[in-house]
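Standup notes
- DV: blocked on the single-chain target, sequence here:
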Amino acid sequence: MINNSYLLGLFGGTATSSLSPTTAASLSRAKAQPTPPWSTNVKAPEPSALLRAALGGRSIIDEGAAQLDVRGAPQDYRKLFALYQGLETLNALTNRAGTKGVDQLEMGQLDRRFASGMAELSKWLGAADFDAIRMVQGTSSSTSKSTAAVARDSAVSITGPIHEGSPDSVSPAFEGDVAFRISARKSDNSTVNVDIDLTEMGATPRTLSNVLLHINGKLESAGLQTRVGRELIKPEPKTVTTGGKTITLPAGPDQFALAIRGVSTETISFSPSAAADAVYVAQNAGTGGGLQMLKFQSDTGGTAAAPTRAGVGETQWVEGRVSQTALPEGIETVRASATAPDGSVWLVADLKEGPGNQPIKGQKDVALIKLDSAGRVVTTQALGAASTASGYAIAVDATGRVAVAGSVTGALDGGKAGDVANVADSFVSVFDAAGQELWTQRRGARAADEATSVSFGQDGTVYVAGRAQSAMTGAVGVGGWDGYVQAFKETQAHQFAPITATAIGVAQFGTAGTDRVDATAIDGTDLYTAGIEDGRIVLRKFALDAEGRPSLSATRDLGLASGDIAGLAVVDGKVMVSGTTRNDALDVGTITAAHNGGTDAFVAVLGTDLVASASDRLTYIGGAGDDTAADVKVHDGKVWLTGVSDRAIGAKATDPTRAYLSRIDPTTGAVEWSRSWDGDGAQASPLTLTVASGGASVLDRLGLPQGEIDQSQSKTLTNATSLRVGDRFYVSPANGGRSVAVTIEARDTLQTLARKIEQASNMKLKVTIATEGAKSEPGDLAGALHAGLQRLSIVARDGVTGAVISSGETGRDALAGLGLSAGYVGQTTGDKITRTFGLGLPTGLNLSTAEAVKTAGEKLQAAMKAVRDAYRALAPETAASRITGEAPAYLQAQLANYQAALARLGG
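- DV (later): unblocked, structure below
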């Protein structure tokens, strides 16, 4: 006999004869929601089937395929189930990518399909119209704050630590002749000079406190408001692991830095009474891959007293080293450096992640980093690549303009990728002396290409050289990888118009094998290149016509390379090329110093016509082991080299490395000056070097930079963040409707962007500029100016219903550059509030690396949990009581007929 109460329960009614109320309620509630695809009662799809369907091009989200086993169930369930099945498909791709043994070809297929699947999911979510809940791809929160920040103007400049212990103890930083000038340029353009000479203190002990009293007394007497104070740096305890045990070491004594506390009406600069040439070496140091900037004082360029000891907190000191500073975290490597006319240093670095206040948009980006003469980071300008980019070369002209060249994959300007989206193209960007971008050009062949050298020519023409695997635009390929040289001419309609650049000529050359250009140099109307062509060192000379277009005029082959090219320069009518080689008989005239065995560094001096001559000179530098030349610069006719010295042939990557820095007379081969040193963990590997005339002085001991302290930084978003003009995101109504694009323009600041967001939301969002005070972290180079930060803060204007913020298209997503999460901003829970669930899926998820695969898997698991939470929210345990009472007579009669029929069937 079938109980009427069960059948009635399915229809929300009761019968006079019934099960217990608890049993009936339980049976009824079991059918209140359709069975979800993650239920143990549902057979899960085979991962292999999901993979085949996805790789076969089938849509990952198919609402028609979602099954509902409860008649009349709301369509929100169908959408949730389709979304979940789409996430399962993406998860299957991710799991396959994480499987050991998957080859590179398949990994590329999985990554591309994952990217298209993510794009499909984003588009579907933007159009999905849920009734009882709200689903967003990003986060769901009442407040959204950008991680990207813009520095406020600061009147306080903090040095690195110069003293440790009590401020009333004598400081080694002030020993000997300490004399320099402080200049203050006032708002009326008048200048007040204040000469500081500590000998004037007489017998007064040179403690930090006493020295500051002396300096500030001089400033006050000169009528200046700027003062020099001290900044306490509290050291933290350190932990070391030995014998499998972790030991905490004492924190050590207090450290103090100088704090230059200025005012807006006085621009402060420092100049030493005596100086010498400085050499900056960027290096990898330690087994942890930390990057450092080392500064050395040469015995040329002046009479400044040589340094006699390491600075506070420095390690592995060597005679002649002025300072050692850590470069900011997030830098993967530094590939090039150059000195500006004002003595500052520019670095080209690859970023694996941006600084805390400057997130990058893609997996890897190029950064142009400016350091003052004290080694402190002044500005960091990210290229803004949407996928990956690498910087290989830098040049600085006499006016301070900076050119950077390298390769980029994926979108750059205007969200446009190259001819083939996943193939690298060459790029060149030019910046003004302050680091603000003037123009960028992306030029590529159909196959891969990259720019490896850049130089400034006459009239501001920029020359880029590199290698290409097929024909560059306007040239003909030779075969395999070819070398190329390309010229760019600048134009400007009027002084307020933007500067544009146009490619005016290209030359492509090489053999049928593998060729490349490693270095270029300009001498008047001649351009020289040095590179490896089919395994041989080849120099080429190009004549530049009146427009700056290059045409080949001479070539010279120096023999088998068995190494690399590190540098090229034209000085005093001589061409100087340098690098490393195992070839002990390069085809260069007179050998001034013979090959020593293994791999040696070399310097070759040739005539500018590239014709072999008895005046040619060749110098080998090194020991019996392997020596490298990581970078080479020519300064005042002398050659500076840095690299790793005399490493045992066949040594492992983890074996100790010892660094060197040497100055060579290229005509005699004499080593005039040399230093070598170890790194932390017996690992020191120089990356780049650059030389600054008169860049070393007593100011280095005090952590003070030469020249003017720039207390203001650019406020435009394209210069303060990784955003590029044309990047955008979308704002749409919380309950559905047309989305409005918010597009980044060249002059946008946080303030103008805030107004754009409010207008795009139809004033549903309130956007303010949140200001953070300066953090007292003098050891952090990026905070050298001790400036506060400003960020966007977004809330619902009425505190309840806000809007949905969505990512821009792949390649031009502004949210990534701002560090804003896509998603819903507004109240997410409460009475009469539509519950909102965020999947937490960044648009930049990919499967390109093992780490990226791991991250994608974690994010997808969290997203699937969010879908399950949304499912439970559609019928929460606290739902209103079901309708109870006696079923209508017609329904009881109908059910009686059903029961009679079933009884007959059952006999």
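- Follow-up: The first helix runs from residue 4 to 10.
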